[in-house]
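Field log, afternoon session.

UNIT: design team B
ACTIVITY: writing a sequence onto a fixed backbone
BACKBONE:
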């Protein structure tokens, strides 16, 4: 009899599952064996298992029957402009009714300031906006709204950390736009655990997205990021929402970039440019002059390239300084460019172009705090270093675009025609690219423009 009891207990005992990816195990472990996340494995009751359970068919509700795709209208997914051109560019034309948008970014980068501006613009157009914050009090938000000029009668503020109370505010206000700052600060009393935990974030996001779909209410969720820059919480959060936007920028500079990492209603290769000011955040429709120096006369060691940020071409000035080294190991200092890439370019210059660099300190930097990660900037870096060595400046109206191979050849890059068109639009009369053939020939062409 005792043996039967033990057998029954073993069969009904629950196991353990990962809150991030759903990986299951029969015993508790500190690290998930599938997604390698720490502290996400928790015990699940035996009743929570769904394997082998029969699901009975249920008749769809009235008005929700399956219909031929040719009878459906696409007007319900039309974009509605927010009044901020750079944000609309990233979203694909505006916010879609019923869409769930996830806004991520490091603390202090300006997410709340930008979204408060969006809320004010929607309210100014006659819409009702509910801004629910779990991080700031309504008084703090009011002070920032006064500073940025975001005071409107149809902009409603709520400082709440309970999901049920936020849902109650939605019923009372009936907004046209809901902003939740942030999703990690809300908690539901129906789920165990504190706010910000995987189970709580999943429940809060699921509930708000259900409200968005049922009412056609666009919802903007602000998400914290981890040390590596990814959205904090379960990866399921990014799968649940329709749009994932990342707001980034260096705190030492006023420039901010908004990138679309996922967009079910538009492209994912657009980028929006903003600038932090004393009155808030302002869009920069034409950032072409932000990454160029203002020297009246050409200076040696500088060269302009045309970088692609999403589908937007931006001119960026690269600066180089070469000085005699007083140490056995010369310094290689970079800012805004990849140090390993620069080391490779310097090796090519010494071997293929005859530049003497093994006993020189080399400093390479970009203007304006922008970071160049694409190989299209190789040629501009190389020409800037050669210009610094010879102390012969390159002309202002010259730009260089191309990837540099270890053999000293110049390879074509993606978006060459668009880069050339942008360079021509901005007044660059000479563009040195892959047609030059080799680094030696490109240097001759650059110096020949003087």
């Amino acid at each position: 009899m005792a043996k039967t009891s033990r057998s029954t207990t073993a069969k009904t005992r629950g196991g353990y599952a990962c809150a991030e990816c759903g990986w299951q195990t029969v015993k508790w472990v500190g690290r998930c064996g599938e997604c390698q996340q720490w502290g996400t494995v928790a015990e699940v009751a035996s009743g929570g298992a769904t394997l082998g359970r029969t699901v009975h068919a249920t008749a769809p509700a009235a008005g929700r029957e399956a219909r031929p795709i040719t009878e459906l209208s696409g007007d319900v997914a039309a974009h509605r402009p927010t009044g901020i051109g750079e944000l609309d560019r990233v979203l694909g034309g505006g916010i879609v009714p019923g869409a769930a948008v996830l806004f991520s970014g490091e603390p202090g980068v300006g997410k709340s300031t930008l979204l408060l501006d969006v809320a004010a613009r929607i309210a100014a157009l006659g819409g009702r906006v509910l801004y629910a914050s779990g991080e700031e009090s309504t008084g703090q938000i009011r002070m920032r709204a006064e500073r940025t000029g975001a005071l409107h009668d149809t902009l409603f503020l709520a400082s709440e950390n309970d999901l049920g109370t936020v849902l109650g505010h939605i019923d009372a206000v009936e907004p046209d736009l809901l902003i939740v700052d942030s999703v990690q600060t809300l908690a539901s009393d129906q789920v165990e655990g504190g706010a910000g935990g995987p189970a709580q974030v999943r429940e809060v996001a699921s509930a708000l997205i259900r409200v968005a779909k049922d009412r056609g209410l666009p919802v903007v969720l602000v998400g914290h990021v981890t040390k590596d820059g990814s959205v904090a919480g379960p990866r399921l959060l990014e799968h649940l929402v329709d749009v994932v936007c990342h707001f980034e920028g260096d705190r030492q500079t006023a420039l901010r970039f908004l990138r679309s990492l996922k967009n079910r209603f538009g492209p994912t290769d657009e980028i929006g440019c903003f600038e932090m000011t004393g009155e808030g955040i302002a869009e920069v429709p034409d950032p072409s002059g932000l990454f160029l120096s203002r020297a009246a006369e050409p200076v040696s060691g500088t060269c302009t390239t045309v970088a692609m940020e999403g589908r937007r071409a931006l001119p960026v000035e690269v600066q180089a300084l070469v000085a005699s080294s007083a140490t056995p190991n010369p310094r290689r200092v970079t800012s805004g460019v990849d140090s390993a890439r620069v080391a490779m370019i310097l090796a090519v210059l010494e071997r293929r172009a005859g530049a003497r660099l093994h006993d020189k300190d080399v400093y390479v930097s970009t203007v304006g705090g922008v970071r160049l990660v694409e190989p299209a900037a190789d040629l501009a870096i190389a020409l800037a270093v050669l210009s610094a060595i010879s102390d012969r400046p390159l002309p202002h109206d010259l730009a260089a675009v191309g990837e540099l191979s270890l053999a000293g050849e110049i390879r074509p890059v993606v978006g060459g025609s668009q880069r050339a068109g942008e360079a021509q639009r901005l007044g660059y009369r000479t563009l040195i690219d892959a047609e030059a053939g080799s680094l030696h020939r490109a240097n001759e062409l650059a110096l020949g423009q003087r």
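LOG NOTE: Residues 1-13, 47-53 have pLDDT under 50 and may be disordered.
NEXT ACTIVITY: expression trials, pending approval
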